[in-house]
Amino acid sequence: MAHDVVDLMDALRIQTAILGGYDWGGRSANIVAALWPERCKGLVSVSGYLIGSQEAGKVPLPPKAEYQWWYQFYFATERGRAGYDKYRHDFARLIWQLASPKWNFDEATFDRSAAAFDNPDHVDIVIHNYRWRLGAPGEARYEDLEKRLAAAPNIAVPTITLEGDANGAPHPEPAAYAHKFSGKYTHRTITGGVGHNLPQEAPQAFAQAIMDVARF
User: Fold this and answer.
1) What is the DSSP letter of 181?
2) CA–CA dist 42, 212 (Å, integer)
3) Fewer beta carbons under 10 A from the terminal one: N or C of the chain?
4) What does the alpha-carbon distance between residue 29 and residue 42 come to, in Å, rounded to a whole number?
5) For residues 52-82, b (16+ Cβ closer than 10 Å) or e, as one string?
6) Of the candidates 191, 177, 194, the residue with the CA atom closest to the CA atom of residue 45
7) What is the pLDDT of residues 52-68, one digit of tens each?
């Protein structure tokens, strides 16, 4: 997906851009900033340093942390694939509620995002993403890039990391990743019951970080 970002920038003739996001989008933005820093003016990353690898995925976590990834193990089974395909809307609503326990989103808000779940490729992409983390084969053409990412490279572009004060999804503490940002860097915790989907739950804070990192 990070490679897709660069390809999209090429197609749009955008040489450099400020990248920001959370979860999969944040991970993609982190990877572009690490591997193609000449294309990234600045980075706004929710939940900090999000570069992972299959090597990192081999390391067992404490039981409480493993419990938070219950759906990753569910998706590793064929029953999980079938269950997600059948109940994708119910599953996503549950994840929203668990990851952002204080976000009182309405059905119209959920339905606008849920329309994307009906994409015919959606289930295959989601299932492979999580199975890859547990060792499923990826695409051979990205192996060299994956080796570089497995080394957990530092990110040198100007960066602001953000975290909501009510994020119910698995996430590291800011102090655990601050050293991975070797350029100008600051962290902000956004208060007020903000959960995992910080750009949507606190859009003003997210937009302000984009504008501020542009002035770094």
Assistant:
1) B
2) 10
3) N
4) 10
5) eebeeeeeeeeeeeeeebebbeebbeeebbe
6) 177
7) 999 898 999 999 999 99
